[in-house]
């Protein structure tokens, strides 16, 4: 693997390269992975939002309206805006999509990896992400440290948004899915637990035509194996996300087929987020109440990992 400094969309960045992949990381923008480029297929896997410029965010900014620019962001220790659920931090209000996506991360490079790290603002945690490349595999190893005498519930969600088109297929090793929310003509309503992939008369693992004008946030909570994959039948391309179910037991999926943009005055667009996660809810308080949230033990740590493999 080769590591070099570069400029990406006007921002300081790091490029990690093998013969198979080129990955671009922006430490100053929450450690964002801005590009996952398959050199053999000449294919960019990550979505780029043409309606939002690349610029460094400020803490507490509106993620959806101003900074959902595409790529792979980190959501921690929450997703939806809300109060922290346990003492001694009950009055702490956590911002949109969490704290760490909007913070600059420290970056240290070696011959084999890039180590990114960040400290919490309103909560006293330390989060570290070590990125390495081997052939066609991008690997992220995470270390969360809690230096306090209080257990710290959290949500962590990877948030890679993918460039997709109709006819591509989402492979998830599950037979049911929870519909957390839906828009338009999605064939199941919010709050329902429904079969997967056949929902009613439709195979929802196949991405619908552009005029579908529907969207849904889904949570897979009973996975049979630790992976999910995007497959393009048009050229055989495949991006597989691998993870350890014992560490990362949930999978969130945002399927936006021309129903939503979140940006005033912008027409709905078409993309897909595949999100291995810890915590099967966007609200930390709800995930904690249901028992799905992660917990960093007092004076302790949590570790997990995620791989993205491009074939």
Q: Can you summarize this structure?
A:
The chain has 311 residues and is mainly beta. It has 2 helices and 26 strands.
Description:
The chain has helices at residues 63-67, 284-290; strands spanning 2-8, 11-17, 21-26, 32-38, 43-44, 71-75, 82-83, 93-94, 106-109, 114-119, 126-134, 137-146, 152-154, 156-162, 169-171, 176-184, 193-195, 198-199, 202-203, 214-220, 227-232, 237-243, 250-260, 269-278, 294-296, 300-310. By secondary structure, it is mainly β. The protein has one domain (2-310): Beta-galactosidase, Chain A, domain 5 (Distorted Sandwich). Strands 9-10-11-12-26-22-21-15 form an eight-stranded antiparallel sheet, with no helix packed on it. Strands 6-14-24-23-20-16-17 form a seven-stranded antiparallel sheet, with no helix packed on it. It is globular.
């Amino acid at each position: 693997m080769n590591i070099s400094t570069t400029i990406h969309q006007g921002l300081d960045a790091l490029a990690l390269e093998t013969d198979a992949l080129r990955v671009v990381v922006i430490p100053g923008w929450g450690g964002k992975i801005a590009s996952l480029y398959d050199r053999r297929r000449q294919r960019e896997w990550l979505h780029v939002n043409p309606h939002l410029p690349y610029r460094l965010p400020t803490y507490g900014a509106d993620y959806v309206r101003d900074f959902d620019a595409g790529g792979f962001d980190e959501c921690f220790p929450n997703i939806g805006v809300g109060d922290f659920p346990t003492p001694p931090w009950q009055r702490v209000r956590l911002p949109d999509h969490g704290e760490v996506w909007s913070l600059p991360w420290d970056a240290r490079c070696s011959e084999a990896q890039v180590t990114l790290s960040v400290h919490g603002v309103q909560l006293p945690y330390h989060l570290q992400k070590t990125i390495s490349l081997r052939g066609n595999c991008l690997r992220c190893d995470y270390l969360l440290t809690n230096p306090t005498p209080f257990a710290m519930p959290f949500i962590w969600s990877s948030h890679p948004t993918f460039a997709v088109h109709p006819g591509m297929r989402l492979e998830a090793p599950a037979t049911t899915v929870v519909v957390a929310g839906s828009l338009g003509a999605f064939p199941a309503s919010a709050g329902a637990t429904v079969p997967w992939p056949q929902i009613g008369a439709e195979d929802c693992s196949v991405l619908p035509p552009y005029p579908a004008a529907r969207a849904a946030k889904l949570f897979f909570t009973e996975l049979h194996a630790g992976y999910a994959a995007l497959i393009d039948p048009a050229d055989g391309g495949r991006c597989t996300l691998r993870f350890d179910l014992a560490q990362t037991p949930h999978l969130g999926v945002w399927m936006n087929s021309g129903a939503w943009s979140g940006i005033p005055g912008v027409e709905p667009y078409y993309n897909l987020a595949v999100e291995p996660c810890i915590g099967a809810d966007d609200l930390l308080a709800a995930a904690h109440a249901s028992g799905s949230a992660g917990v960093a033990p007092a004076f302790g740590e949590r570790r997990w990992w995620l791989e993205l493999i491009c074939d």
